[in-house]
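user:
I keep going back and forth on a fold encoding question. Separate attempts, laid side by side, tell us more than any discussion would. Would you put together a sequence-and-structure record for a protein of your own picking? Write it directly below this note and I will take it from there.

assistant:
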Amino acid sequence: MQTEKITDYLSKNQNVPTLFAARELGVSEREILRNIDDDGITEVSGSFFDSAMKEIAGWGAVTVIVTNDSAIIEMKTSVPVGQYARGFFNLHSDESPLGGHISFEEIESIFFVSRPFMGKESHSVQFFDKNGKCSFKVYLGRDACGKVLECQKADFIKLKKRCMA
C-alpha cells in the first residue's frame, strides 16, 4: 500500500524534491528514493562509506547539505579527509571550514542520485542511516555559469561504478 501511495504521488509530482515528498507523505526520504522509477538513482550498501568519503575528499569544492525538521543547512567547500576515532568518522582540517563527527556505523545505505534540480543537471551522493533518515548529502560543485564541474562528474561516475561492482 505504501509503495502505491508513493508511486502515485511521484507520478503526479515528478519534479518535487525528495525531501518535500517524504514530508508530504510522512515517509522517509530513503523510501521516496527507492520508489522513484529512474535509472539516475542507485542504492549501495553503507559499507562503502569509507571509500566514498575518501574519494569525495579529493573532489574539491562541493555542496554539503544537512537537513532536519526545521532547517536545511548548506556549505560549499571541500570535504576534509576524515579520521576514525572514538566511534566516529571525524572531519577536521585547516583548509576546510567543514568539520564534524559522523556516526559511520549508523550509515546503512548510500544513494548516487543523478536528477535535474530546479531545471539544472544535478548529481549527489546521499548517506542514509538505519532509520531511513538522510544523514547528509554531497552535491557536485558548479562553475560560474552554474554547470556541474565535469571533472567531478567523471569522479562521481567512477565512484558509483566501483561501489556497484
Notes: Residues 150-164 form the longest helix (15 residues).
